[in-house]
Design a protein that fits this description.
With about 300 residues, the chain is an alpha/beta fold. The protein contains 10 helices and 14 strands. The strands form 2 sheets. Strands 1, 4, 5, 6, 9, 10, 11, 12, 13 and 14 form a 10-stranded mixed sheet that branches. Strands 3-2-7-8 form a 4-stranded mixed sheet. It starts with 5 loop residues before the first strand and ends with a helix. Belongs to the carbohydrate kinase PfkB family. This is 5-dehydro-2-deoxygluconokinase. One of its GO terms (molecular function) is ATP binding.
Amino acid sequence: MTALEALTVGRVGVDLYPEQSGVPLAGVSTFAKSLGGTATNVAVAAARLGRSTSVLTKVGPDGFGDYVRQALREFGVAPDHVGTSAEFQTPVVFCALDPPADPPLLFYRSPIAPDLTLGEADVPWDVVETVPLLWVTGTGVSVEPARGTQRKMLERRGRRSHTVLDLDFRPMFWPGTDTAREEIGWMLDHVTVAVGNRTEAEVAVGTADPDEAASRMLARGVELAVIKKGADGVLVATAEGRWTVPPLRVEVVCGLGAGDGFGGALIHGLLSGWDPVRIATYANAAGALVASRLACADAMPTADEIEELL
């Protein structure tokens, strides 16, 4: 059995994608089912690149929960740490490909999603302390008990390399931006890598300016700050310097999941010991490939596909 290289923690769900593009949800007649959820997609993306990954999350006691475990196995992600919440159903998410680049999402996660009920008893503490890469998310601290659980995980981890925070801000999961800034900000003091877009950076550190945001993250002890600037490329910053990797032009089919493809490639680059520019260039290509395809988990690229695009 291959030793686990990366454990991601957080959101899982079943994504329902319209098979008709450019129309609102009311005009969609058929949907295609896919595995989804940020932490889950990132684990899949890294597995596609040959990494041994697992996701710590929870599903409901329903057919969609069975589907999640089955799909993870098919994608090469160990489902060993997928728990079951007896009280709540596996979330589903609808999107409308209108506009394709930034599709609106409709989350069915009420009153609370199983992945936000993660408690201390659900955590493989030995894995958290020793796995080469631990990936946590901003959404994961939006409510209790997951908030306290993820905090304890970071405290036990002790900021060892690599401990990665995906800023992952979705306003519908939070009571307000101030709460999100406080909670996500606490996490910045306990991780070695932070990654997010301009909006997420502003929520985390109070500025949408990529350079200033990166400086504030580095000042908090983060070793590598990665700020995704969309059409302006990707900024990577360390104490030694900062660089901007230019964007890759693709025809966007669906913008969802591009950040998760980026994340899986980021994991691969970190575990490979690559320099920041090489990591960002590779991850940028992975994200571009996902944006040129429909669906999230199913769209994650292989190493050969990334190399071909580059």
